[in-house]
Amino acid sequence: MSGRMMTRSSLSHHHPHHHNIIPPTLWLVLLMILSICNSLPIRLEFDDEDMLDLTYPFNNQTVYYPTMEQLGFTFQLGTVFRGLNKQQHYYSAYWFQAAEHGGTHVDAPSHNQINGTSVDRLPLGQLIGPVIVLDISQKAKRNVDYLITVEDLQQWEEKHGKMPKGGILLICSGWGQKWPNRNALFGTKNFPDDTSFHFPGLAPPAAKWLIKHRSLKAVGTDGPSVDSGPNQRQLPVHQLFSAAHVFIIEFVANVEKLPTVGATVIGLPMKIEGGSAAPLRLIGVNWRQRPTGGVTVDAEEEEEGGEGEEGRKNIASGVGSRRKHPSLNTSASSRPRPSSNVTATVVTRPTAAPMPRKISQKLKIPNNRAVINLRWNSGLPLFIIFPFLSLRLFRYAQL
Predict the structure, then answer these.
(1) Dist CA 134 CA 210 (whole Å)
(2) Which of 127, 177, 164, 165 is nearest to 283 (CA)?
(3) C-alpha distances out from residue 295 to 68, 136, 286, 329, Å
(4) Taking the chain, what is the end-to-end CA distance rounded to the nearest angstrom?
(5) Is beta strand 277-285 parallel, antiparallel or unpaired with respect to 51-53?
(6) Is the backbone peptide bond immediately before 192 cis, with ω within 30 degrees of 0?
(7) Nearest to residue 293, comparing CAs of 388, 230, 382, 215?
(8) Can the peptide bond before residue 180 be classed as cis, meaning omega within 30 degrees of 0?
(9) How far apart are CA 294 and CA 288, in angstroms?
(10) Distance CA 176, CA 199 (A)
(11) Does the reported pTM lie above 0.70?
(12) Which of 178, 286, 321, 392 would bridge 184 by S-S if both were Cys, CB 3.0 to 4.6 A apart?
């Protein structure tokens, strides 16, 4: 008995911190909590000036594919009731009808594949991702039937970096300036005769290259179709993208105002069960983003003009390069004055090149702010290193 007591006493003497050691079980619980926090949604707040509407309004000028217009399936809005009800309260309600393929809309794979995914089964994150703007407007001026080649895509990457995984490619052909002139958009004097259409699109080899070498979520255009006018009968690019589960967005508004890289697009279509397409509400969020796909946040702006020291450094180094335009974050003087300051920590995971895991900046948030929760995975998942940490902690606890 005394020997056992002496043994315990001697252990306590040699290890005065023995009773202060955190049990391995508690360490594991803490690590599990950290692992969960490692992939929690991030709450980002930004004002209206940081968002750009990429959707045309649906009205009696909305342009539909010729077949729809020939059959009379265009947008119509009718009145159910408008005025004072029996209780003398104002009340309004309307009905509408519209075809799927018109205005700003998304084509689901079921549009060209028998067993393709219908638009209601589109994953919620399918149309959320970093934007890639390919400007062919000058080439399309010289050749209205211009076909985007593999070389065009490779030259874009030589200048701006590899297209990020999960990106959304938007083609800027200059066709947005023609909206809503049907003949101008379809390049014909005989609308809706689809044998005389003339407008640019992707060449099938370019579509195959994107499918094979780049993991894009969607490809969109400011024109009527990702297939060129002369290819409207065969629709080879539609066939390729639908088979590869790449969604197609057509008649995107304001593409010319987006930065070449650096913005994020967010799109949610109408949930039409079994639909081959659907009207789409698409917006661009003007985040500065590294060409490699990592996310950065604008530094705090100066009171009078400019975009902050960090912003100037980014522009000087080519990070987050963009075309200037009035609707996207031009200067502090053009924005509403903020009513409050908050500190936001953005945890990101770059898609191509490593970057700091945490980027913390002050963001100025006005009262009329929008809130979006996005999920980003950052760093090495802690559950991968659980066995190693557990073993080390267990040995340490046994000392």
Answers:
(1) 13
(2) 127
(3) 41, 26, 11, 17
(4) 23
(5) antiparallel
(6) yes
(7) 215
(8) yes
(9) 9
(10) 12
(11) no
(12) 178
Bridge partners (DSSP) of residue 147 are 201
How far is residue 25's CA from residue 214's CA, in Å, rounded to a whole number?
44
Structure tokens at 240: 């390729």
Averaged over successive runs of 10 residues, the pLDDT of the chain (399 residues) comes to 47 48 65 60 63 94 89 92 94 94 96 93 94 96 96 97 96 96 91 85 97 96 95 93 96 94 94 96 72 34 37 39 37 33 33 36 40 45 53 55
Long-range Cβ contacts of 387-390 (<8 Å, 24+ apart): 389/27, 389/31, 390/24, 390/27, 390/28
The structure tokens listed for 356 are 């700091």
